[in-house]
Amino acid sequence: MCGICGVVYDEPGRVDRALLRKANDLLLHRGPDDEGSYVDEYAGLAMRRLSIIDLSTGHQPISNREESLHIVFNGEVYNFQELRSPLEAAGYPFKTKTDTEVVLALYEREGPACVSRLRGMFAFAVWDSRKRRLFLARDRVGKKPLLYALGPGFLAFASELRSLLCWPVDRRLNAKAVDYFLSLQYIPSPHTIYAGVHKLPPAHTLLFERGKATVERYWDLPVGRPPLKCGVPEACEMLREKLKEAVRLRLISDVPLGAFLSGGVDSSIIVALMSELSAQPVKTFSIGFKEERFSELPYAREVAKACGTDHREFIVTAEMTDVLPKLAWHYGEPYADASALPSYYVSRETRRFVTVALNGDGGDENFAGYIRYFAMKAARLYDAVPAPLRRATQAAAELLPDQEAPFAFFWKLKRFLRSAVFADIARRHLKMICYFSEEDKKGLYAPGMLHAAGLEAGRERADAEHYLNNAFIRAQGEDFVNSMLYVDFVTYLPECLMVKMDIAAMANSLEGRSPFLDHEFMELAFRMPGDWKLKGLRGHKWILKKAFKRKLPPMIQRRGKMGFGIPVGAWFRGKLKDYWRDHVLSPEALSRGYFNREALEAIFDQHQSRRRDHGYRMWALLMLELWHRQYEPGFKGFS
C-alpha cells in the first residue's frame, strides 16, 4: 500500500528532482515505511510505501531485468501468488516476493491487457523508457485513487490531488465541479475541483505516448448477461463460497490485521467469516456517538460476543470536529459525506493496533441495502395513484414537521414524496439523494455562480442529473432493482464511498480491504435477480441474509438498515452553531461570490428554529469553505 506520483515530459532533461521529491513527500501519510524514486531523461517516478507484504525486499520503484520498464504501485493484488507461478516456470527472474513485481512481469508479457488478470485494488504506473510510453491503470471499483494533469509538454500523475499541484497545472476553479458537489456531496470522475486536473475513472487505463493521452475502459459489470440459472439454495451456496474465498484472500498480510465492525449485516458477515478462517480472535473496532439514535454500538457488541472477537469501541463527539480543517486538507477537494469524520477517527484508533482492516463496504450496492431502493421501487406503485391525489398528498406532507435527518419518519416521507412527483427515473433518483436541488440553487447562487454553472439561461437537465441518466442508460436491459444497483456501482460507490474510506484510512496509514468488492463476487451477485436482493418492498438483502443466516445473531438478522449518519443537525444547533456562522457567513467566505448572503442566513435561521433540518446541507457548505481556506483562500468568484 503506497502513495505514488510522477511526471513524463516530451523533451529530455526537464525532470526536476526537487519537485518530484516535494510531490512525494506530500504522500508521506500514505507510506511512512519507505520511499523511492527513479529519474531518467524524460520521466520521474516516486513512491511512499506502507509495508504490508514482503517487508524486506519490496522497495519501489521496481524494474525489469533490462531496466527498460519501471513500476510504482499502490494497492494489493490478492491473486499475485497464483499469477506468479507460471511466470516463474517460464523463467522470469523475480528479485522480490511482492505483488508489484508480478504486475510488472505481467505487463512486460501482456502489455495493457495485464489489468484484466489482476484481482484486487490497485493504481499503478509503468514507464517504458525505450518506447517513451507511460501506462496508468486503476482498479475496477476505484478503491485506489489516481489523478493526472496534462500540462505544456508533460503529463503528471499522483495518488492525491495536492501532489499534482507541485507541477504547473491549470488551477482555474471548475464551477461545474462545485455544482456537482452541491448536488451529490462529491465531485465525480473525471472531474476535479481544478479545470486542469482529472481523475482516472475506475476500471480505466491511460496510455501516454508522443504527447497524447488515451483513456479506455477495461471492465464493467455483466450488464445484459443472462441471469444465473439456478435456484435459491444453489445461489446461497455460491455466495457463501465466493465471499469466503474473497475474505481468505484478504487475510494475506505480513502485518497485524483486524476489521471494522458496525453491527450491520455486511460487516457482521465479514467478521464471522474472518473468525472462521483465523486461528486467533479477530481484532474488531467500532465507532459510536453519545446520541443513541445514531449509535450502532449495541449491535456491534452482540456480533463481537457471538464471534469471540477482541473488541474495542470509540465515541465521536461534537468537540472532535476540530479536525475538520485537517480533513479538508486530506481530501484535497470539496467532499461532503459527513461520515468521513467518524471514518477518520475509527481509522486513527484502529491504526494503534493493526495496519490492515477489513470492512463491509459494497454489501449495500450488491444486495439493495439502502432505503432509497425501497423508495424507488415504491414510487413505481405510487405512480398509479391519480395525479390530483398525489399532489394533495405531497402538499399535506410539506406541512409535517421537518424532523432531524436522516432517520426520522417524516423526513423520509417528505423526501420520498418530493422525489416521486417526477416520472423521469434519473430526475427522481437525483431528487432522492441530492443535497441542493436545481430550485434550491437558483435562490442560493449569486449571479456569477449562476452564470458559471450554466443555470442562468436554464438547462434541460442538471449536470448531476445528466451524469446519473447516463448511468441508467448503460444499465438498460436489467431488471429495475439491478439497474439501480448498477447506477450506484458506477457513481456513488466509487466516487463517494471509496474516496471516503481511502482518504480516512490512508490519512492514518491504515489499509482498508473490502471482500464484498471482490470483482468476481460482484459479478456473481449482479447476475442474480433483483427480486432476490429486494424481496417485495421490505426484504432488503434477502438473498444475502438467507445465505448467511446461520452466521448472524438473531438481533442482527432482524434489524433494518440504519446507515452511517452522524448527528450534524443537533451539532449545528449546539457546539457547531457559532463555528458554522463564523466560517460560512464570514466576510471572507461571502467574498468568494458563490452564494447570496440572504439565502445562507435563511438556511441558518430555519435550522436554528427547527422549521427545516439543514444539517447535511450546512455540512456541505462548511466543507466547501474549509477547503478554500486550505487550498484557495484568495478566490474571489468566477469571472
Helices and strands in order, then pairings?
Layout: E1 2-9, H1 17-25, E2 34-39, E3 43-49, E4 62-63, E5 69-77, H2 80-89, H3 99-110, E6 120-128, E7 133-138, E8 147-151, E9 154-158, H4 161-164, H5 175-184, E10 198-199, E11 204-209, E12 212-217, H6 232-249, E13 257-260, H7 265-277, E14 283-289, H8 297-307, E15 310-316, H9 324-331, H10 340-350, E16 356-358, H11 363-367, H12 371-382, H13 387-397, H14 409-420, H15 425-433, H16 438-444, H17 447-453, H18 463-474, H19 480-490, H20 492-506, E17 511-513, H21 519-526, H22 530-533, E18 534-535, E19 539-540, H23 542-547, H24 554-558, H25 568-571, H26 577-584, H27 587-590, H28 597-608, H29 615-631
Parallel strand pairs: 13-14, 13-16, 14-15, 16-17
Antiparallel strand pairs: 1-3, 1-9, 2-3, 4-5, 5-6, 6-7, 7-11, 8-9, 8-10, 11-12, 18-19
Protein described:
This protein is α+β, with helices and mostly antiparallel strands and 639 residues long. It folds into three domains: 2-175 and 192-217, Aminohydrolase, N-terminal nucleophile (Ntn) domain (Glutamine Phosphoribosylpyrophosphate, subunit 1, domain 1); 232-367 and 499-558, HUPs (Rossmann fold, 3-Layer(aba) Sandwich); 567-639, no CATH class. Strand 13, helix 7 (265-277) and strand 14 (283-289) form a beta-alpha-beta unit. The longest helix has 18 residues, at 232-249.
